[in-house]
Design brief:
By secondary structure, the chain is an alpha/beta fold. The protein is 42% helix and 12% strand. The strands form 2 sheets. A 7-stranded mixed beta sheet has the order 1-7-6-5-4-2-3, sandwiched between helices. A 4-stranded antiparallel beta sheet has the order 8-9-11-10. Bound molecules: pyridoxal-5'-phosphate.
């Protein structure tokens, strides 16, 4: 057995054992950063160590400091899990080590990206001729789409940003809902566009389309971008796309949708109504590492006009090999990058059309079970309309809710984070893992009842 095989076998054994432990594990990490640092050792060795020995040290030192993110009882943030075919494909991505940017150099990668991209457009109900770029996550997908938006609205105003930059050019007006995700602000900051102008939202976080319409009436001719949202991280709510897109079109604006986890509602016949009108936008950002459950890092930047994306992200290099129809590199910010589309292809191939729909339906059903269970706890109130995968609840005043959250983490059965929503501390449940079972939800609800009772 050579070094490579020995190291991979070690990694395989540890990975399989750790994943098997998830069905009955405590979700929070047990070790502190300092404890893991001590276990790993601070001193850089003078000489080499056998790769298998390094993997053994890494696995045994780190395991106590791991949070069981891919466990079916993790409901923090919005994280997804690791669908098995996608996880295994991700190992192959590292083994194959393709620099996945040029069609001519990795035909296999280009084929997987083409197929995965067209399957995604089909499942998400987006225009079939759109360009799909595979980014690190939804933050960079928002950045990528909004770069195409910025350059296009400025080009229409006579400004070539790629050549002349922003300084001295017309100001771009960006409008976004008051409850947009902060990743939108971050993307706008990277793009030199500053903070968006906020359009009021309703109590569920949905942009008020009449407020958008009056902000855009009468049209003032400024280059304008409107950012909508599919899936509010607290309530799961979706913006009223049809009305908002029509208001934006009246002002000649580019319409972008941040649908990091919510855009996937479109893949389920039962929930597709939430995204009605969304396909009329110009660009859409979503994640594959959330609802689709591929490993990090994988976001998707979808732009209706491929030429607009290529104008923003494309590049030429004398030493590169360019394809006449464009390359993966022309759709994303990075130059060198890993083969992100392989795990996406694998997850889609494993789920199939009905499997993706069933996944979305299951996540939503679990969220409703959580809401119903919490509503039955004395003193607890569910604050949001549970339309998708998100539940926000309080257990009395802020201090009482924080106490329940702290006791729940101590208990270890489930991992649920707190947040502040509309000025109140809330327990925020996000169901996004393919492997979450009815039993996981029942056990987690029991843990919430225990935390609320003590
Ligand atoms: C998670 C999320 C983002 C950011 O996505 P990353 O993949 O973490 O970069 C943006 N918008 C919304 C609505 C999200 O839920």
């Amino acid at each position: 057995m050579d070094d490579r095989e020995a190291a991979l076998q070690k990694a395989h054994r540890h990975a399989v054992r750790w994943l098997a432990s998830l069905s009955d594990c405590e979700v929070p990490a047990r070790a502190t950063v300092d404890e893991v640092v001590r276990a790993l050792g601070l001193d850089l060795p003078d000489g080499p160590t056998a790769p298998a020995e390094v993997v053994e040290l890494l696995a045994t030192a780190c395991e106590p400091g791991l949070t069981a993110f891919p466990c079916g009882r993790f409901y923090g943030f919005v994280v997804g899990g690791t669908e098995p075919a996608a996880l295994a494909a991700d190992w192959l991505v590292s083994a194959w080590d393709q620099n996945s940017v040029m069609r001519a150099v990795s035909p296999a990668y280009a084929a997987a990206e083409d197929i995965a991209g067209s399957w995604l457009l089909d499942l998400l109900g987006l225009p079939g001729t759109s360009a799909v770029g595979f980014t690190t996550g939804a933050t960079m997908a928002n950045f990528t789409c909004l770069a195409a938006a910025r350059d296009t609205v400025l080009r229409q105003a006579g400004r070539d940003v790629a050549r002349d930059g922003l300084t001295g050019g017309p100001a771009v007006r960006v409008l976004a809902g008051a409850d947009r995700h902060m990743a939108v602000d971050l993307a706008l900051r990277y793009l030199g566009l500053g903070l968006p102008e906020l359009v009021p939202a309703d109590d569920q976080g949905r942009m008020r389309s009449e407020a958008l319409r009056s902000a855009l009436t009468p049209p003032d001719g400024r280059p304008t971008i409107v950012v909508l949202q599919a899936g509010d991280i607290h309530s799961g709510a979706f913006d009223p796309f049809a009305e908002a897109v029509s208001a934006a079109r009246g002002a000649g604006a580019w319409v972008h949708v941040d649908g990091a986890f919510g855009l996937w509602a479109a893949a389920s016949p039962e929930y597709a109504h939430l995204t009605a009108g969304c396909a009329a936008a110009d660009s859409w950002a979503t994640d594959a590492h959330k609802t689709l459950n591929v490993p990090y890092d994988c976001g998707l930047a979808v732009v209706r006009d491929p030429a607009a994306l290529r104008a923003a992200m494309g590049l030429r290099g004398d030493y590169l090999i360019h394809h006449e129809h464009g390359d993966p590199v022309d759709k994303v910010p990075e130059l060198s990058r890993r083969g992100r589309a392989f795990p996406v292809w694998a997850a889609l191939r494993a789920f199939g059309r009905s499997g993706v729909a069933a996944l979305v339906d299951r996540l939503c059903r679990h969220a409703r079970t959580f809401a119903a269970g919490i509503a039955g706890i004395e003193g607890a109130t569910v604050l949001n309309d549970v339309v998708f995968t998100q539940v926000c609840a309080v257990f009395g005043d802020d201090a009482a809710t924080d106490r329940v959250l702290a006791r729940l983490l101590d208990d270890g059965t489930a991992w649920i984070s707190g947040s502040t929503w509309h000025g109140r501390r809330v327990m925020r449940i996000s169901v996004s893992n393919w492997s979450t079972t009815d039993e996981d939800v029942a056990r987690s609800l029991d843990a919430i009842r225990r935390a609320a009772a003590s």
